[in-house]
Amino acid sequence: MENYHHAYEKLIELTSEKNVMVNEHLNKHTYTKLGGKADFFVTPETYEQVQKIVKLANKENLPFTLLGNGSNLIVKDGGIRGIVLNLKQLSSIQTDETAIVAQSGARIIDTSRMALSKSLAGLEFACGIPGSVGGALFMNAGAYGGEIKDVLESTIVVDREGNLLELSADQLDLDYRTSNIPDNGYIVLEATFSMKKGSYDEIKAIMDDLTFKRESKQPLEYPSCGSVFKRPPGYFAGKLIQDSNLQGKQIGGAQVSLKHAGFIVNVDKSSAKEYIDLIHFVQDTVKEKFGVGLEREVKIIGEDLT
Question: Which residues form the active site (predicted)?
Answer without folding.
Answer: 177, 227 (proton donor), 297
